[in-house]
Write a structure and sequence with these properties.
The chain has a single domain, classed as Rossmann fold. 23% of the residues lie in helices and 33% in strands. The chain contains 5 helices and 8 strands, in the order αβαβαββββαβαβ. The protein starts with a helix and ends with a strand.
């Protein structure tokens, strides 16, 4: 992903880093933007990482991230079900935060389930100002071009958050 980003972006002002999010060290007040796409739900100590991210942002800097939506990560067995001819997404254990084991790309992938309140309140406690929260679902035109996405309107797959220091 980094190689592709570097190949497509020819802006010398953009710097890409690769590292372990659990142990990453970030220089204070050194970033305008911290962006994460579908990675933070793998981080066990998210509060520690977000604290380091906040310190690394310049005043007014932005944090933008997406995670699998908590409705998506909550079920003990995350997959569509069918009953009485209707497909539905089972929701159980939503308020029970912690690791969830799923089979995705490999068996036994561990994701950290958190509620929406946990994500939002963590950012507020750390002093972030939340500028936008979006629960992604495909638009009508996206569903028209991708008919397989029709069920994605039944539950949000992704949570997107933008915040400022």
């Amino acid at each position: 992903m980094l190689a592709r980003a570097c190949a497509q972006t020819h802006d010398p002002g953009i710097r890409y880093l690769r590292g372990n999010l659990e142990r990453v060290r970030l220089q204070a007040s050194s970033f305008d933007l911290v962006f994460s796409s579908l990675a933070l739900h793998y981080v066990k100590n998210l509060g520690g990482l977000m604290s380091r991210v906040r310190r690394s942002l310049i005043s007014g800097g932005s944090l933008v991230f997406s995670v699998e939506h908590p409705i998506y990560t909550a079920p003990s067995s995350p997959r569509w079900r069918t009953a009485s001819g209707r497909r539905f997404w089972p929701l159980d254990g939503y308020l029970e935060e912690g690791p969830r084991s799923t089979d995705w790309l490999a068996r036994g992938v561990i994701k950290q389930h958190r509620t929406m309140a946990t994500y939002i309140n963590m950012l507020l406690r750390l002093g972030f100002s939340i500028s936008e929260v979006n629960e992604w679902g495909p638009t009508r035109s996206q569903r028209a071009s991708q008919p397989g996405w029709a069920d994605e309107r039944k539950r949000p797959a992704f949570l997107l958050v933008a915040a400022r220091r």
